[in-house]
């Protein structure tokens, strides 16, 4: 490790507090794992690395090769002439592991591992780290720990960027530097995957392998590969700069009801990557406390007002997919969530299939704060929602005595209540749907035909056993993750499994009752936030049928361009368009939580066209 500085080098060993996030469920590609299936992981990443780096390399003599033909160079440049700029952030963390993948493949082809899996973790690439006094301690710690874990050849620079690079490149000639720059970064303007350094800077090639990666791509990589990352991202930071201009993203705030200090969701929970830099607010006191400080066009207002939780809605039912039943509960839920400041990120209908339900829940459970699941609850063969929940969370269905008591009260207290009152074999037989179907010729108190069935059970006993079997089936709930939410107005408590809310409502009237009860519960998972505000404008700019077709096309392109620009300038506002009929006017909908921002966006749109081109339909 070398240092370019006017002061003494900080000893990496002095950073005792760990900042690497490796939970039990997130372990995988870390330094402590010596027997990982790295070949599988790296081979899976080879295509990604070649696609990202190869797009730029394809323009030159290397023709998309990650490693040169000789095996001694890196994309046509010797390994000693390339460097990696690492700053401890999520983007450069992704790039580090892509470079590790390339290095692994290179060493594997060279046959250099000799069966030693510990050496797989090493990636002795020259690494540049610009350390400043304004850096977060967690960033410094994570950088040093990462460098030690992967044997990075770390050059620490404590000068400004330009002077530091000039000094470093004089001492160690460097032809190319790998950067974690992505489109959307302030310094990404005009850059391509291979871009020469700017005029006035030391000459080198800037290599941007993940330039076209999105915010979601970055986090999908980190979470899928289970690589360590800086702990600040688990505290709501989505884009990390200095301690003076960075704070947790208010959109990830979890308001505390008692007024205590707010908590924040992890960075990967941010649903809209355009708001990644919303936490880059200046931490300076305003001269006038009544004037909110602006950052990236977003006000530094009360996070309780600006933050938003997200929910998914999953309806289960083959009949909905067949078109024989109209699904109305989902639309009603969307409106109710919108009214309390929640955003619906996903709504889907799946068939009565355990795997389909489990797959949807697997996909959404880490992305949304709450998932509403309804349909397919009960004792029928098609009622598989609870089994799908259990599979998604990796638990089994087990009897819940408390829930069975409620069912016994509803269905009638038949039998002695002894779970062993009937032979286990008989109960298991009767729990099978095919067996139950054979006995549907039974009526209460008598049999159509002989007085006993083939199993030798009397008709009356058969009915009691069947009811008990149904009750036991309905009382099977996901083990260890189920919470029953009680309310005086509910005959049966609501079922909550982790962040999955199961609704037994079959129509909007029943949903109204369950929703009201859910909001009134002290332990309700629904936190009521600042409501969404909307404004609708109507225009017939598209429908000037008497204008020449060419002019009409120009007008369409013009309004589309203006709306696209507005979406970029107002990332905190959803701007959508729809028509009630093909011949009708275009309706433009602005939805957000800041009325002033909505008014400003709609005003800018109106100013771009002639007076009277837009008329306001509604606002609220």
From TrEMBL:
Domain MoaB/Mog: 312-497
UniProt KW keywords: ATP-binding, FAD, Flavoprotein, FMN, Nucleotide-binding, Nucleotidyltransferase, Transferase
EC number: 2.7.7.2
UniProt cross-references to CDD domains, sorted A to Z: FAD_synthase (cd23948)
GO MF term set: ATP binding; FMN adenylyltransferase activity
Record region (Disordered): 1-25
Pfam families with a match to the protein in the record: MoCF_biosynth, PAPS_reduct
Annotated transmembrane regions: none
Pathway: Cofactor biosynthesis; FAD biosynthesis; FAD from FMN: step 1/1
Any Gene Ontology biological process: FAD biosynthetic process
Catalytic activity: FMN + ATP + H(+) = FAD + diphosphate
Biased composition (Polar residues): 1-19
Enzyme's top EC category: transferase
The protein's name in its UniProt record: FAD synthase
């Amino acid at each position: 490790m070398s240092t370019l500085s006017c002061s003494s080098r900080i000893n990496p060993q002095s950073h005792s507090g760990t900042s690497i996030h490796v939970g039990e469920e997130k372990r995988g590609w870390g330094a402590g794992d010596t027997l990982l299936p790295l070949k599988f992981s790296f081979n899976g990443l080879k295509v990604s690395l070649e696609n990202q780096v190869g797009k730029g390399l394809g323009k030159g003599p290397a023709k998309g090769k990650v490693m040169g033909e000789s095996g001694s160079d890196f994309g046509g440049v010797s390994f000693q002439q390339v460097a990696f700029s690492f700053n401890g952030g999520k983007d450069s963390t992704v790039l580090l592991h892509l470079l590790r993948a390339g290095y692994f493949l290179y060493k594997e082809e060279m046959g250099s591992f000799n069966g030693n899996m510990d050496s797989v973790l090493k990636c002795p690439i020259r690494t540049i780290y610009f350390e400043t006094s304004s850096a977060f301690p967690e960033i410094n710690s994570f950088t040093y720990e990462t460098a030690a874990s992967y044997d990075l050849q770390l050059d620490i620079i404590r000068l400004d960027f330009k002077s530091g690079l000039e000094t470093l490149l004089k001492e160690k000639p460097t032809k190319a530097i790998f950067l974690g720059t992505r489109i959307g970064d302030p310094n990404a303007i005009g850059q391509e995957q291979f871009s020469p350094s700017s005029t006035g800077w030391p000459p080198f090639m800037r290599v941007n392998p993940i330039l076209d990666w999105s915010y979601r791509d970055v986090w999908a990589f980190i979470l899928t590969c289970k690589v360590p990352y800086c702990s600040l991202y688990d505290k709501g930071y989505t884009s990390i700069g200095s301690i003076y201009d960075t704070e947790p993203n208010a959109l990830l705030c979890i308001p505390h009801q008692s007024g205590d200090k707010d908590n924040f969701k992890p960075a990967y929970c941010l649903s809209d990557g355009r708001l990644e830099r919303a936490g880059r607010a200046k931490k300076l006191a305003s001269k006038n406390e009544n004037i909110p400080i602006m950052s990236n066009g977003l006000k530094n207002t009360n996070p309780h007002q600006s933050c938003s939780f997200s929910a998914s809605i999953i309806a289960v039912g083959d009949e909905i997919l067949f078109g024989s039943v109209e699904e109305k509960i989902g639309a009603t839920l969307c409106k109710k969530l919108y009214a309390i400041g929640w955003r619906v990120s996903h709504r889907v209908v799946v068939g009565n299939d355990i795997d389909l339900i489990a797959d949807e829940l697997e996909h959404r459970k880490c992305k949304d704060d709450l998932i509403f699941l309804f349909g397919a609850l009960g004792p029928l063969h098609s009622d598989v929602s609870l089994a799908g929940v259990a599979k998604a969370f990796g638990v089994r269905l087990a009897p819940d005595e408390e829930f069975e008591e409620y069912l016994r009260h509803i269905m009638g207290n038949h039998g002695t209540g002894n779970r062993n009152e009937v032979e286990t074999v008989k109960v298991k037989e009767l729990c099978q749907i095919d067996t139950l179907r054979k006995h549907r010729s039974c009526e209460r108190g008598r049999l159509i035909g002989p007085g006993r069935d083939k199993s030798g059970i009397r008709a009356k006993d058969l009915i009691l056993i069947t009811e008990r079997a149904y009750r036991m089936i309905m009382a099977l709930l996901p083990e260890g993750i189920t919470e029953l939410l009680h309310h005086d107005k509910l005959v049966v408590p609501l079922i909550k499994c982790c962040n999955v809310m199961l609704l037994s409502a079959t129509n909007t009237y029943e949903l109204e009752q369950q929703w009201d009860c859910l909001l009134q519960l002290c332990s309700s998972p629904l936190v009521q936030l600042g409501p969404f505000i909307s404004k609708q404008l109507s225009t017939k700019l598209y429908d000037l049928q008497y204008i020449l077709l060419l002019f009409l096309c120009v007008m369409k392109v013009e309004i589309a361009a203006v709306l696209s620009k507005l979406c970029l300038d107002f990332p905190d506002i959803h701007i959508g368009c729809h028509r009630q009929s093909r011949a009708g006017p275009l309706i433009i909908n602005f939805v957000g939580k800041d009325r002033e921002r909505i008014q400003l966006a709609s005003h800018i749109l109106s100013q771009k066209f002639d007076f009277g081109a837009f008329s306001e339909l509604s606002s609220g």
